[in-house]
Amino acid sequence: MISLEVNNLTKVYPDGTKALDNVSFKVNPGEGVVLLGHNGSGKSTLFRCITSFEKPTSGNIVIDETDITTLSKSKLRPIRKKVGMVFQHFNLINNLSVFQNVLFGALGHTKTSFHTFAPFASEELRMKAMDCLDRVGLSHFAKRRADQLSGGQQQRVAIARMLMQDPEIVLADEPIASLDPKAGREVMDLLWEIVQERGLSVVSILHQMDIAMEYGERIIALKKGNMIIDESVKKLDRAFLDTLYHQEDFTETEGEKAGA
């Protein structure tokens, strides 16, 4: 299993907003970390930097002992294969089948995208896709269009797609924000069961304090780009965490919106 290190990460947007200010932490192999913070705290900017969708102004990010901030796109590919993503809005292709959406999780492991299309995928990949769907309890929906499922079911498909990738670390960006409380808790149970049984590291952005305290082993909290908490859940005071969500109102600039 691999580790993730964020070292002195700073991100300044063109309007002058400092979305991240010298943020540093390490996620150890197999560790479950929850990232908390008010809108504008820099959580999403941090995730975009970790996934290389955004370049930091300074500092670096090390995944599997490799500094990804200096890599070209071609050299990033083998690192990205090790990082699974679960998104708030699922990012499924709605007019394709559940089975096909899961097969796309193998894109990083095939020579071309052609080999991930159902009619041309190998028997091995097809069987693996069904195993991943079975793990999330949706193998019986394999032929159904993705947009015919409920929100909770679609997020389960997204988790199956992530499993198809064989990641070693999982980044979950508000994975239950679009779900009702019951479906959200079911998805969290499933996601945490999977990462624990496979010994995966997981970093998840969450807004729900109770969920964060229940599932996370460790809480990292940001406030206006600064890391103000990095502590084991067992040592945290809930009353202090609550203060994160009672900040003074402020007008979001372009950079703050980007760093929400």
Describe the protein's architecture and organization.
The chain has 260 residues and is an alpha/beta fold. The chain has a domain at 1-82 and 203-260: P-loop containing nucleotide triphosphate hydrolases (Rossmann fold), CATH 3.40.50.300. It has helices at 43-50, 73-80, 98-103, 123-135, 151-164, 181-197, 209-215, 238-242, 254-258; strands spanning 4-12, 18-27, 32-37, 58-63, 66-67, 83-86, 169-173, 201-205, 218-223, 226-232. The strands form 2 sheets. Strands 6-7-8-3-9-10 form a 6-stranded mixed sheet, with helices on both faces. The protein has a 4-stranded antiparallel sheet with strand order 2-1-4-5. The longest helix is centred in the C-terminal third of the chain and has 17 residues, at 181-197. The two termini are 30 Å apart. InterPro entries: AAA+_ATPase (IPR003593), ABC_transporter-like_ATP-bd (IPR003439), ABC_transporter-like_CS (IPR017871), ABC_transpr_PhnC (IPR012693), MetN_ABC_transporter-like (IPR050086), P-loop_NTPase (IPR027417). Residues 4-249 form the ABC transporter domain. It comes from Alkalihalobacterium chitinilyticum. This is Phosphonate ABC transporter ATP-binding protein. GO terms for molecular function: ATP binding.
CATH architectural name of the domain at 1-82 and 203-260: 3-Layer(aba) Sandwich
Order of helices and strands: EEEHEEHEHHHEHEHEEHH
Largest sheet: 6 strands, mixed
Count of helix runs: 9
**Lateral strand order in the biggest sheet:** 6-7-8-3-9-10
Determine Rg (CA atoms, Å): 18 Å
Low-confidence stretches: 247-260
CATH topology of the domain at 1-82 and 203-260: Rossmann fold
Alpha-beta content class: alpha/beta
Global outline? globular
According to CATH, the homologous superfamily of the domain at 1-82 and 203-260 is P-loop containing nucleotide triphosphate hydrolases
Q: Estimate percent helicity.
A: 25-40%
Protein name: Phosphonate ABC transporter ATP-binding protein
Keywords: ATP-binding, Cell membrane, Membrane, Nucleotide-binding, Phosphonate transport, Translocase, Transport
GO molecular function, one term: ATP binding
InterPro entries: AAA+_ATPase (IPR003593), ABC_transporter-like_ATP-bd (IPR003439), ABC_transporter-like_CS (IPR017871), ABC_transpr_PhnC (IPR012693), MetN_ABC_transporter-like (IPR050086), P-loop_NTPase (IPR027417)
